[in-house]
Design goal:
single chain, mainly alpha, 3-stranded antiparallel sheet
């Protein structure tokens, strides 16, 4: 009888491999399984369970309830984890009798067809030149078309024919990829070498020059990417474009300090290059071409549209013409796979992950991103993002005479210094464990916390649990007090903005205003905190009734 081997992932760090191996051993999930040879068998729950563990990231492992009653079934872990689980199982089971059952499962959780107003972007001008470039390099794109979705994503890619699963949707030849190798034949390359610039700086300066050179000659003879550069959006919603008043709308969130640090770092990079380059080479690095605004534009292009693709043994930051039209979805199953490089065809390939109907916008899942990551890299956020978390810290009182013992207990239990509040308060195991240790009133109580990891498994006593939840209640109230507005006020203002939002008439739209972005992010953060407050309040009321 054939067998299926599901090994640990070599790409994990040694620490992650060890943690996953311990979890798999604890729940009794082995590495080798027997397989049916024919028929249409169902995928055993043990296979799903093992692969879900293998696909866990740091957040999933944090939320997973450790040291609970042993069970070999690991159910739904998270949105992104399920997507990775399906992808891994597809690789393992392709060509086996189990493939049919996996496809049926994929269909059962696939999002419904989105019906939204759209406007086909006509192939004319620069877009026609881009189409000519792609087709002259044997790219088949007649089943796809750039499209404008004015009420949602802005630019996107739409299917003009039904697309089957599984099949390659796009194959982009290596010579059309826009990366640091593109700059090697540029007359800018010797100057980059002279100043020992890193790959990111070379690529950014090269893009800015070619975009804003005006009547100056291209830096590369037979430059073929001009049409691609010209169809890139003129405006981006990256945080470093936000004004000071825009950034003030992020007050109370961790995104505010992160956004300011991001802009400051970018400015430091710019100042390290200019006016040094423009003073030494004024005919090339002109102030008009390499202005601060143009430099930010170039950075926004790479942050929002470039991907690190492994080509051979090298990982290269790359812009992929036409493929960059595909937008992100937070759904468990995107329609399109993540970009991969195929050595045999020497192409970057995008595959279908499901059957795609004519008229449907294509999406891919960029990764397990929370809203602060999405807005920093791509300039948008998702309402009701299922991956959203809110970071909260639990600090021990250093004046407490039990502080050294409590600190040792925190370390022994493996409790991190920061915790992630999620949409399910019941998953905040480590947070509750930290609180239980923090409110301990005796050495004996602390020992009770560490014995058999009791503090992580659940309450150690009724009084300790009540004190822990009271502390959590005050911590959450403190987090909300840092915001200048309430959750209700934010929701009302967002509804008002949506009601009065003018319909955009230009083709390069921004998906939403900076205020809307800030409101959606604030609402997401406050909603998580409020859920924990409500949960804590109910628990405290129940405890009072029992007393």
């Amino acid at each position: 009888m054939p067998t299926l081997t599901i090994p640990l992932c070599d790409l994990d760090t040694p620490e992650m491999r060890e943690r996953k191996a311990k979890l798999l051993d604890y729940v009794g999930l082995g590495e080798v399984y027997e397989m049916a040879e024919s028929g249409q068998p169902k995928i055993p729950t043990e296979w799903y369970s093992r692969v879900r563990v293998l696909c866990m990231d740091e957040t999933d492992l944090y939320q997973w309830q450790p040291y609970s009653d042993k069970s070999s079934e690991v159910g739904y872990v998270s949105h992104w984890n399920e997507l990775k689980t399906i992808r891994m199982l597809r690789k393992l089971l392709i060509g086996t009798p189990y493939e049919t059952d996996l496809n049926q499962y994929c269909k059962s959780i696939s999002p419904p067809l989105r019906s939204e107003p759209s406007q086909i972007i006509q192939y004319e001008g620069d877009m026609q030149h881009l189409k000519n470039l792609l087709e002259s390099n044997n790219m088949q794109i007649d089943h796809l078309s750039p499209c404008l979705f004015p009420e949602t994503t802005g630019r996107g890619l739409i299917a003009t024919k039904d697309i089957s699963y599984p099949e390659p949707i796009l194959k982009i030849p290596k010579k059309l990829l826009f990366n640091v190798h593109t700059t090697k034949d540029s007359f800018l390359s010797p100057l980059f070498d002279l100043y020992s610039l890193d790959d990111d700086s070379r690529l950014l300066l090269f893009l800015v020059y070619e975009k804003f050179r005006g009547n100056n000659p291209s830096s590369v003879s037979n430059f073929c990417w001009e049409s691609f550069i010209k169809v890139l959006p003129e405006k981006y919603d990256a945080l470093f474009f936000w004004s000071e008043s825009d950034l003030r709308e992020l007050q109370g969130t961790r995104l505010l300090s992160s956004a300011m640090e991001q802009k400051q770092h970018l400015r430091e990079v710019y100042d390290s290059l200019f006016p040094k380059l423009s003073s030494a080479h004024p005919d090339i690095f002109t102030d008009e071409i390499f202005s601060w605004e143009n430099f930010m534009w170039g950075r926004a292009v790479f942050d929002s549209r470039a991907f690190v693709i492994k080509i051979g043994t090298e990982e290269v930051t790359t812009l992929v013409p036409f493929a960059e039209f595909v937008n992100h979805t937070g759904d468990t199953t995107g329609h399109v796979s993540f970009r991969r490089y195929d050595e045999d065809s020497q192409c970057v390939v995008l595959d279908s992950l499901s059957h795609i109907q004519k008229g449907q916008q294509l999406f891919m899942n960029y990764g397990p991103m929370q809203n602060y990551e999405l807005v920093q890299s791509y300039g948008f956020v998702l309402e009701d993002n299922p991956l959203e978390t809110c970071v909260v810290g639990v600090e021990l009182d250093t004046d407490d005479e039990l502080y050294p013992i409590k600190a040792d207990a925190i370390s022994e239990l493996g409790i991190p210094s920061e915790h992630m509040i999620t949409s399910n308060p019941d998953n905040n195991h480590y947070l509750m464990a930290a609180l239980r240790v923090a409110v301990c009133e005796s050495n004996e109580e602390i020992q009770q916390c560490t014995t058999s990891f009791n503090a992580i498994r659940g309450p150690i006593s009724q009084r300790n649990e009540q004190l822990a939840r009271e502390l959590l209640f005050y911590v959450c109230q403190g987090l909300l007090s840092e915001y200048p507005t309430s959750l209700t006020e934010d929701i009302d203002l967002l509804d008002l903005l949506k009601l009065n939002k003018a319909k955009p008439s230009h083709t390069e739209i921004l998906s939403t205003s900076h205020l809307e972005l800030a409101l959606i992010y604030r609402i997401g953060q406050k909603s998580l905190i409020q859920k924990v407050l409500d949960w804590t309040g109910v628990c405290l009321e129940e405890a009072m009734c029992e007393d």
